[in-house]
């Protein structure tokens, strides 16, 4: 496997030192990493899931709106940040792999490096409360 | 390819009787590819002496890793820049808002330097270095961003005989709870993968590093761990701390005092060293 770009490496290093839950994906939305606070939110260790295609992570956590309607992948802030390369934010509800339903806010932004290279996106999660 | 080290010191020239064996000039490496040509890695203070010895050439390529002063301070004193028959190609990283010309003109401009870039007699061609593979006479070059403050690149040079990787200012351990980690999550690892010779930052002792995290440099132990991770065949420790005397460098690089034997040949760079990069 080839090396990730230095910007993505540094984003992972930063995330690994923060207490905010953070998700990091590559330019096509594949999950590269989530940090320990995100593990608590998602109810699963990153080592157990590993890198994950966008179709998997976008459904694994069963995202819904506040009224319980399933959210299509295209409505998820991280997918918006990847597809449209703009920041995105929304509230939603997820069910972690530990079975706990949580209300969260998600803010995602695209990663662009020197030379206008699109490198992926980062999402920051904020738990507003368990259901 | 044949290589000569004209400057191995980091951060600041360190002239004096206490630095004569390892040298006091800052980063500058002459590369002579097997197929001919002259490529220079960085333009530290060592560039002046190299410039005084350049033979008959019509083109010189200078590859800058970044624009910290210790890597460009020799430019204004490089004699070929004052020879109109020579074409000098300067390659280096742009920033997100400025190209190489704008960035380097901050130095080659009054009041920092009396001669402006457009006034140099040679034919100077500036290139924002592409972050991928490109070719120079006799060489295949790959540049990529590496972990060091401000836009900084490393270089991988390959000719018919071997591969040299040049990472003079590099902190791959930045932010790592344990170093080394996996290769795909390590800055510079593609550039250095199985290089025949790896010239790598080794500025600090392991005891100094914790107080200098984020300054963009490596300890000797990190340099060795990085070289082992990427499967380099030989490590040359580079970018010596300007405060380190010859005797202190002797002690730092005395392998007999190390806790374990490296998995590859490891030597410190000395100004004036010459070697051939060969896969054999």
What distinguishing features does this structure have?
heterodimer; A: 131 residues; alpha+beta; 5-stranded antiparallel sheet; 5 helices; B: 280 residues; alpha/beta; 7-stranded mixed sheet; 12% helix; 24% strand; globular
Summed up, what is this model?
Chain A has 131 residues and is α+β, with helices and mostly antiparallel strands.
What do these coordinates show?
The complex is a heterodimer of chains A (131) and B (280). Chain A is of the alpha+beta class and 131 residues long. Chain A is built from 5 helices and 5 strands. Chain A has a 5-stranded antiparallel sheet with strand order 2-1-5-4-3, sandwiched between helices. Chain A starts with 5 loop residues before the first helix and ends with a strand. The mean pLDDT of chain A is 92. In chain B, the strands form 2 sheets. A 7-stranded mixed sheet of chain B has the order 6-5-4-3-2-1-14. Chain B has helices spanning 47-52, 100-105, 189-192, 220-230, 246-252; strands at residues 2-7, 28-32, 39-41, 59-63, 87-92, 123-128, 133-136, 139-145, 153-158, 163-167, 197-201, 235-238, 266-268, 274-276. Chain B is of the alpha/beta class. The chains are: A alpha+beta (131), B alpha/beta (280).
The helix content of chain A, as a percent range, equals: 25-40%
Question: How many individual helices of chain B?
Answer: 5
Strand order, main sheet of chain A: write it out. 2-1-5-4-3
Radius of gyration of chain B, CA atoms, in whole angstroms: 18 Å
Shape of chain A: globular
Uncertain regions spanning at least 5 consecutive residues of chain B:
none
Classify the beta-strand content of chain B into a percent band. 15-25%
Number of strands of chain B: 14
Topology diagram in text:
The complex is a heterodimer of chains A (about 130) and B (about 280).
Chain A: H1 6-17, E1 22-25, E2 31-34, H2 36-42, H3 46-49, H4 54-60, H5 77-83, E3 88-95, E4 101-113, E5 117-130
Antiparallel strand pairs in A: 1-2, 1-5, 3-4, 4-5
Chain B: E1 2-7, E2 28-32, E3 39-41, H1 47-52, E4 59-63, E5 87-92, H2 100-105, E6 123-128, E7 133-136, E8 139-145, E9 153-158, E10 163-167, H3 189-192, E11 197-201, H4 220-230, E12 235-238, H5 246-252, E13 266-268, E14 274-276
């Amino acid at each position: 496997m080839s090396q990730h770009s230095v910007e993505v490496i540094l984003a992972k290093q930063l995330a690994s030192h923060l207490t905010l839950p953070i998700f990091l994906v590559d330019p096509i939305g594949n999950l590269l990493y989530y940090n320990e606070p995100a593990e608590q939110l998602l109810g699963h260790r990153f080592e157990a899931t590993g890198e994950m295609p966008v179709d998997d992570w976008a459904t694994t956590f069963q995202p819904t709106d506040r009224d319980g309607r399933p959210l299509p992948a295209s409505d998820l802030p991280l997918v918006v940040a990847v597809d449209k390369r703009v920041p995105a934010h929304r509230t939603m509800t997820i069910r972690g792999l530990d079975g706990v339903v949580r209300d969260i806010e998600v803010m995602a932004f695209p990663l662009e490096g020197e030379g206008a290279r699109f490198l992926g996106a980062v999402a920051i999660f904020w738990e507003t409360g368990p259901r | 390819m044949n290589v000569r080290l004209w400057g191995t010191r980091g951060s600041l020239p360190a002239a004096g009787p206490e630095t004569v064996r390892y040298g006091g000039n800052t980063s500058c490496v002459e590369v002579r590819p097997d197929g001919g040509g002259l490529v220079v890695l960085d333009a530290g203070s060592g560039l002046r002496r190299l410039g005084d010895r350049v033979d008959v050439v019509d083109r010189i390529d200078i590859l800058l890793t970044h624009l910290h002063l210790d890597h460009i301070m020799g430019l204004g004193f490089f004699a070929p820049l004052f020879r109109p028959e020579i074409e000098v190609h300067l390659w280096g990283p742009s920033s997100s808002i400025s190209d190489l010309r704008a960035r380097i003109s901050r130095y080659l401009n009054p009041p920092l330097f009396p001669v402006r870039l457009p006034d140099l007699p040679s034919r100077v061609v500036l290139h924002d270095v592409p972050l991928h593979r490109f070719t120079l006479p006799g060489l295949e070059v790959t540049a990529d961003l590496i972990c060091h403050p401000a836009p900084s690149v490393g270089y991988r040079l390959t000719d018919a005989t071997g591969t040299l990787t040049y990472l003079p200012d590099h902190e791959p351990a930045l932010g790592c709870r344990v170093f080394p980690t996996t290769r795909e999550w390590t800055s510079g690892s593609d550039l250095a993968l199985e290089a025949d010779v790896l010239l790598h930052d080794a500025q600090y002792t392991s005891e100094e590093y914790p107080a200098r995290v984020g300054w963009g440099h490596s300890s000797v132990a990190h340099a060795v761990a990085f070289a082992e991770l990427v499967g380099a065949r030989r490590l040359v420790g580079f970018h010596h701390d300007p405060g380190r005397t010859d005797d202190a460098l002797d002690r730092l690089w005395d392998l007999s005092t190390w806790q374990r034997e490296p998995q590859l040949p490891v030597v410190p760079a000395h100004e004036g060293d010459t070697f051939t990069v060969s896969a054999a």
